Q: What sequence folds into this?
């Protein structure tokens, strides 16, 4: 697989449990950067992969 300049942001929903005894939870939306990877073999499928980000 080889990387391409195609990038996109997607939003994922993550549940954060505040109190496990009462099942109270809080959801958070996370923005994830992804990059498209092209196949090196002919007629194979490409895929979106998450790009790891570093905190400043």
A:
């Amino acid at each position: 697989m080889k990387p391409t300049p195609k990038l996109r942001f997607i939003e994922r929903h993550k549940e954060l449990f505040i109190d496990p005894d009462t099942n109270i939870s809080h959801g958070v939306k996370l923005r994830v950067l992804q990059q498209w990877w092209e196949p090196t073999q002919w007629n194979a499928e490409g895929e979106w992969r998450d790009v790891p980000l570093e905190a400043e």
Q: What stands out?
A: The mean pLDDT is 86. The chain has no helices and three strands. The radius of gyration is 17 Å. The CA atoms of residues 1 and 21 lie 46 Å apart.
